[in-house]
Request: fold
Amino acid sequence: MTARYGGDANFAPSTSTGVAVNISPENSVTTASIFSVTTNGVPFPLTTASYGSFIYPRADVAGVSQHGVPTGYVYFYDNGNQFSGVNVLNSEGNTALPNGYSYFPAGPHSLTAAYTGDASFHPSTSAPATFTVTAASTQLALTAPQGAAQGGAVTLTATLTSTAFAGQISANYPTGSVTFMIGNTPLGSATPSGSNLDSHGITSVATFYVSSLPIGTNAITAQYSGDTNYSASSASQVSVSIDADFGIAPANISVSATQGGSASNTLTITGQTGYNSTINFSSVSCTGLPLLSSCSFSPVSVTGSGTTIVSVQTKAATSAALLGSPFHSSWRSLGLVFAGVFLLTFRRRYRSAGVFCVFAVTLALGMSGCGGGSSGGGGGGSPGTPKGSYMVTVTATTADKVVSHTASFSLVVQ
Reply:
């Protein structure tokens, strides 16, 4: 360093000889802290959080003298293990993970921040900032079909939800397993698979297939085992009705009827061991019927094994109305001839064109009215049920709507 005198009216300027001054870097102090934010985005100090919560690590660096602003980089460590990349100090000497960090595992944590130093400030490491992450709570819901036939595959679906990672762009989904049980007897287990992340949190689904449920009403439950980061949970029970199965078969693969007649076929219902359900039949049990036909059953219900007769009634063709008959057409033609002769005679006697026109129009309207009245009274005919071959299918469903089968036969309308 040198000193320079600028001089005055009596003394000339001068410069001192240089004096060496060595400036060594100042010691720095780094402080680590942990924050979270409210739903309104207001930060608050954090000591405990559930897994998947938004956690905001921050480091503040200052010189011991409180003069100057350190520059450079900070690294964060959790329980001695580095978990962040380079974090650059801003103009106020602090830094934080801009998007927070939600992947701290459940358990106790000790966060430290290490400052790398710069030309004016020595490196420093913060004292630990401690906090605890608890396992995220879960909710388990079980769904199953109302029922199935004995030996049929039943799909059990357990949906696991949690508020963890709510509103974030990625998540660590639960591991562990879901055990499905009938009473106190395990049926088997399935691993939940992550399927959705939204503003409410995560959703994982475990699916299990079982075909060994006994006949009757089965109370099914499910339990999630939990893992290091997600707590265990249980689902409310659901009931699954298992019915003994049955078969249905027609006595004839083809029946025939003339137009306007009916055709019948016997349907035999054969139940397996333990089957005693009731099947109710109605007109809606038939599909594939031709136009202008209907079906009926006798008896209309069968309990256990038995038979019912299905009858298909067709409609005959009907003749056209009187308006379309040759007899009516002849009278109409004769009327027109009579009207023409009358008009010629009338015109010879009454030369007035005006009177003639009025009379002609009146007569024409009268004839039209007669024709229209006859037409309205007669109506049209019907071609009846179309002739041809049709595949008729009868659906048999148990009264509890658990088991359903079909039987088909050909209907020939001649």
Remarks:
- Residues 321-378 have pLDDT under 50 and may be disordered.
- The helical segments are 326-349, 353-378.
- The longest strand covers residues 233-243.
